[in-house]
């Protein structure tokens, strides 16, 4: 088990290295730099000397290869660099924003799994009933309606019909005021959760339908087990693998920031931080943030693999001698 | 536990969490603190290097220039109480306001003025506004409250250049021993308490402000990146004052008597830039044909929902000429076809046009309307939609044929166009056109001291530009702010400045 973990962790390193190189090159291939994005066309009014002085200020004066190696060597020492624009170390910025993203991701995942697994199971058990029809309708709506539409409708309804907007640009940390924080995060979480619940629901439904048709389920019914025990004791657990896979991938995405929802609901998460960094060509921040996001993704993938073993005893990472 | 029971519990919990969130009272708003929201944050705090509108909107609350443009674009005293040119126009004497203090308590004197202007002129600073001050040969301070600028030529527009927040006066102490990109020590009505980029800026009223006000205890500027959400926050009463960029959102029918939307004509202008340096735009007839084929009013009506006014090159009310004096300002497709025929291009050609979708928000609709209109003379407009950083890069490299742009206006025509329509000007190559008349008129306009003669020079300049059609000036839009009914005394300005937040009162 430990050996498996160690192997997986070692495999993370080349992945992250590759990503860092890719991002480093890609962002420099995009036209424009920190100076042109800050000054707009006014950048053209600068003399050579002026431009050189600003390049030194933003750390753009060194050759690209040198920039990469000096950045990489600092990353290896745990320093993700410094954002001139924010006047703060990149790691500090990421850690400031990450709790928002994590909270939003987990809450929306809980919402999605609750809605998705419940309706999905019900749909499968009452196959082709009104409940099934309703469930599939919800799933279709969730899949078809984009986040920005649901989010904007929510905000419009809240502000115009109820005269409230829980987050008017004054996001409050959970530790500071839990109630206010929950009020601010619940609507974006619902927006994300609703969209994602659709896929969860569909996956649950088809996995359950498959499991419910298996021999051992018939056997369980035959033994005289109550239907509830059959469904929860035998069927759901066996249908969980595809759901966990789906949830793991989704969580990975969500931890990279839900840019659109963060923007609509004015949440200071990782997504907006990275997006702004890209539009301002804040190289250090872009590199640091993407590395962080990639790291999360890889780790979550690993956790999902470990979960498989917990759900299905046939899967094991213990080396057999 | 049955499944339906689990579901029921989950639903109850969800409703409770939502209810709690909803009932939580709005942030404990300091009764007399103005809560403001806008979509875009400043990109930095150094007034000498920041040029983005979003940055200026913050810095003008904290810093002040020597002279200020008021809501009618008249140049009025700020840190300088008065200014006079010598007889020959080679000396500009500035009499400074006495009794002004910086936010750190130090006194404002001539030393600060000289240090600030010297910092802008120092190439190491990287200030784009330096070009407007190049006529300054030397500076002297006969006493603590007088500064004399010795000039290389009678530079009349220098006064206007000194009215920009880019020529704000910093404390000489900060310039010498501090970091002007981070230490925000100004003389303005508000003092910077904290700046969290892309989140929140907190300003406190300057108790020692020399002018009237401020009448609020402070301003809290929140960044809400989506303007539809800003409108929602205003309607929900969560914020007191907001700024809008997108006319489509600002003009949503509000139908709420407690909200006021302020609209002020702005001096920035929407323009179709054609590079006359590129074939076939090098033919005068082709450019003129494009000018004649475009229905400017339709561009305003369709792309900006009528939120704008057709304009000539100069947008400031004191400098405009009647539009019927300008070449082909009424759409005339017959004449356009005739001109294309003269150019030997009846068959038309393909015109690539670059545009950046958010700068301004109406850029793509503008390009699309023009695309439709130019079909009448067989010109196929190919729209290339670019991210802003890429757009700027291409624009600066003159790597385009046509471009949709929103350009800033200035209170004075010379600094507004000197960079484009003079030989050797920084952006003349990008503008792609120059002739002797334009060059001569710009140079005369810079040194002419008589206001009537100066107006005539720039009127001729505009007529000539419209006739040569290197660019097709389209329209000027409006700046939009919104406020609750209990917010009073705000004055919107044509430059979009929110300096008059210093006059705002809250009657909650």
Compose a concise summary of this entry.
The complex is a heterodimer of chains A (321) and B (508). With 321 residues, chain A is mainly α.
CATH top level of the largest domain in chain B is Alpha Beta
- Portion in helices of chain A: over 70%
CATH class of the largest domain in chain A: Mainly Alpha
SS content category of chain B: alpha+beta
In which order are the strands of the major sheet of chain B placed?
8-9-10-1-11-19-12
Rounded to an integer in angstroms, the radius of gyration calculated over CA atoms of chain A is 24 Å
Pick out the low-confidence regions of chain B: 20-29
Q: Largest interface, and how many residues on either side?
A: A-B, 67 and 65 residues
Number of domains of chain B: 3
Number of helices of chain B: 16
Query: Based on DSSP secondary structure assignment, what is the total number of beta strands of chain B?
Result: 21
List the helices and strands and how they pair.
The complex is a heterodimer of chains A (321) and B (508).
Chain A: H1 2-29, H2 34-39, H3 48-58, H4 64-76, E1 82-83, E2 88-89, H5 90-125, H6 130-144, H7 147-161, H8 178-212, H9 215-222, H10 227-255, H11 259-264, H12 270-279, H13 283-311
Antiparallel strand pairs in A: 1-2
Chain B: H1 3-23, E1 33-38, H2 53-62, E2 67-69, E3 75-77, E4 80-85, E5 91-96, H3 110-121, E6 136-143, E7 146-151, H4 158-161, H5 172-177, E8 190-196, E9 200-205, E10 218-223, H6 227-235, E11 241-244, H7 247-250, E12 259-265, E13 269-274, H8 284-293, H9 296-303, E14 309-310, H10 333-342, E15 349-355, H11 363-374, E16 379-385, H12 388-396, E17 402-407, H13 413-417, H14 428-431, H15 436-447, H16 451-468, E18 471-476, E19 478-484, E20 487-488, E21 505-506
Parallel strand pairs in B: 1-10, 1-11, 15-16, 15-17
Antiparallel strand pairs in B: 2-3, 4-5, 5-7, 6-7, 8-9, 9-10, 11-19, 12-19, 13-17, 13-18, 14-18, 20-21
Helix pairs in contact in B: 8-10, 9-11, 15-16
